[in-house]
Write a structure and sequence with these properties.
Layout: H1 2-39, H2 43-58, H3 64-83, H4 92-105, H5 111-125, H6 128-141, H7 148-164, H8 168-185, H9 188-204, H10 208-225, H11 228-244, H12 248-259, H13 267-280, H14 284-297, H15 300-316, H16 320-422, H17 426-429, H18 438-446, H19 449-460, H20 466-479, H21 483-490, H22 495-505, H23 510-516, H24 521-536, H25 546-552
Length: 561
């Protein structure tokens, strides 16, 4: 009784510990879900949640569930750091060597996210081909359904990578896919960015009209969503296009809109447009005013524009020293930009070269795996083929043995019937019509009108007609009822072979048989020998030739089957 109570208590303890572990894991999973939902809109709050569970997640668990929580926690850290614009290249080995293999084989729900951040890491490293490859895998891994926003985000990343690679047609294709996905998901924030990117691609391909349409759409979307950054970017590009078309009124309107923006991070955009517009309109003082402002806030490309404008204006004003000074600075910027572009070009080429090497190695591995699979498949089917051949051979041997046994039984029956005839026991075993032995049956057949007719054709050297052969067969079957059936049971005779047997049954010589069927004497002899071998195979035949066999079979007391 005490032992039973101890066992029950132990079981209750195990159930309690299991329920506690399961409850804790459910709570951790819920917190991870909460952090994941906040990662996009409020990464700081998501990071705060992760900091609360870091100790619990860090515990080593033995079950699959505990490991899945740790994998999800690690993936969320990568995601949140990316949302905080922190470098995520340090997570490369974690993502590619740990997270991707785990989610591929154990929890495919999070595989698209892991693939996406593998692409993001490669993009940050400047490995565009590998990044695009991961993004394509992400699209393939995304389940069908309401994931338009996720698909749109992936297409945006691919589109921007193609844009940086100066592959504008491919970039436009993916960006338009992204815009369609965002339209379905009603994601107005990303829609403005995407429209802006599509416009940039068209501008790079000298399709200013198409670019203007998309910049205008981006501007409308940015104004609706209060996105000053996209608004100012679109206004700058539209102003550039207007200046290029000499539509200075529109350009000034766009400039006024950018100058009135509250977003100080894009003020250089307004100054750039102002410099270009006033330069085209020969407003020298305004160009000098905005160019000097641009030098204080712009990047190297803005300084390039400012120095070039200043050099030109001071030259026109008759101040060659200042013009030369700014000309030299403009050339320095130009050299820096060229070097930067050359560096970027080399980086793209190096990235593409490394990617091609990886693809080559992957292709070799795939070919080797395919070769091994092919060897296994060939080996398997070869084994199956050998087994089937053995089965067929065994079945044929069994069938051959059965046939030999049947023929032996037939021979025994014939010998038995002949022994009975020799003992003249016809009254007990057989039933004859008017004759009382086999000899009288043969005599009756030989005296029949059709047999006599065949002998006459030998004398007249004429060939029998089809109706003659039919009558002869009928007469033989009438006299020897089992004749034909017995022969066909021994071997399926051809028509000419059966006619040879009919002529032998009426006791014709081989040369007469040869004459009636238009063959040589040797041909008849050879055909008879082959036929007796076909009937009995390699076994010993109880008859010396085909003639003796034919004369022995066919009556009710003959070899009947």
């Amino acid at each position: 009784m005490a032992k039973k109570t101890y066992c029950i208590s132990f079981l209750f303890l195990l159930l309690f510990l299991f329920s506690c572990t399961t409850r804790e894991e459910r709570e951790l999973s819920a917190m991870l879900d909460r952090a994941d939902s906040l990662a996009e809109s409020n990464p700081d709050s998501a990071l705060a949640i992760l900091s609360q569970i870091v100790l619990s997640i860090g515990k080593e668990g033995s079950g699959v569930v505990a490991k899945s929580l740790r994998m999800r926690y690690a993936l969320l850290r990568v995601k949140i750091d990316d949302k905080h614009y922190r470098p995520i290249t340090s997570y490369e080995h974690l993502v590619t060597d740990t997270l991707l293999p785990y989610f591929r084989h154990h929890d495919s729900k999070w595989l698209p996210t892991a693939l996406f951040y593998a692409g993001r890491i490669c993009a940050d490293k400047g490995d565009a081909p590998q990044a695009i490859d991961y993004y394509q895998q992400t699209l393939d891994a995304l389940p069908e359904g309401d994931n338009d926003r996720s698909r749109g985000l992936v297409h945006i990343q691919i589109g921007w990578l193609f844009l940086y690679q100066e592959l504008y047609e491919e970039a436009i294709s993916h960006l338009k896919h992204a815009y369609q996905c965002e339209l379905e998901a009603k994601d107005s924030i990303y829609m403005a960015h995407t429209l802006q990117a599509i416009g940039t691609c068209y501008l790079k391909t000298n399709s200013e009209d198409s670019a203007y349409v998309y910049f205008n759409k981006a501007l409308t979307m940015a104004l609706q969503g209060g996105n000053d950054y996209v608004k100012n970017e679109a206004l700058e590009q539209m102003a550039h296009i207007s200046i290029w078309k000499k539509d200075f009124q529109k350009a000034r309107a766009y400039l006024n809109m950018t100058l009135g923006s509250k977003d100080s991070s894009t003020i250089h955009v307004a100054y750039t447009v102002a410099v270009m517009l006033h330069y085209e309109q020969n407003h020298s003082d305004s160009v000098l005013f905005y160019a000097h402002k641009l030098l204080k806030v712009g990047n190297i490309y803005n300084r390039y524009t400012a120095y070039k404008a200043l050099a030109s204006i001071y030259l026109k004003k008759g101040q060659p020293e200042l013009a030369l000074e700014y000309q030299n600075k403009w050339e320095e910027c130009d050299d820096s930009i060229r070097k930067q572009k050359n560096t970027e070009t080399l980086a793209r080429m190096h990235s593409l070269y490394n990617y091609q090497l990886r693809e080559k190695e992957n292709t070799k591995l795939i070919q080797e795996k395919n070769r091994q699979k092919l060897i296994l498949i060939i080996s398997f089917f070869s084994f199956i083929t050998i087994i089937l051949m053995l089965i067929v051979i065994i079945l044929r041997i069994k069938e051959q043995k059965r046939r030999i046994q049947d023929r032996l039984e037939q021979i025994q029956k014939l010998q038995y019937r002949e022994s009975i005839i020799r003992k003249e026991q016809s009254g007990e075993i057989i039933a004859l019509s008017s004759e009382d032995n086999l000899k009288s049956l043969h005599e009756r057949l030989l005296n029949s009108s059709i047999a006599i007719q065949f002998y006459e054709r030998i004398q007249t050297e004429t060939i029998p007609k089809e109706e003659d052969w039919t009558k002869l067969e009928q007469e033989v079957s009438k006299t020897f009822p089992y004749f034909k059936r017995t022969l066909y049971r021994l071997y399926p005779l051809k028509e000419q072979e059966f006619r040879i047997c009919l002529l032998l049954k009426i006791q014709m010589r081989n040369k007469d048989v040869a004459q009636l069927i238009s063959r040589t004497h040797n041909a008849i002899t050879m055909a008879s020998n082959r036929l007796i071998k076909k009937m009995f195979g390699k076994e010993e035949c109880p008859y010396k030739d085909l003639r003796e066999l034919v004369l022995a079979v066919g009556a009710e007391y003959g070899l009947c089957m």
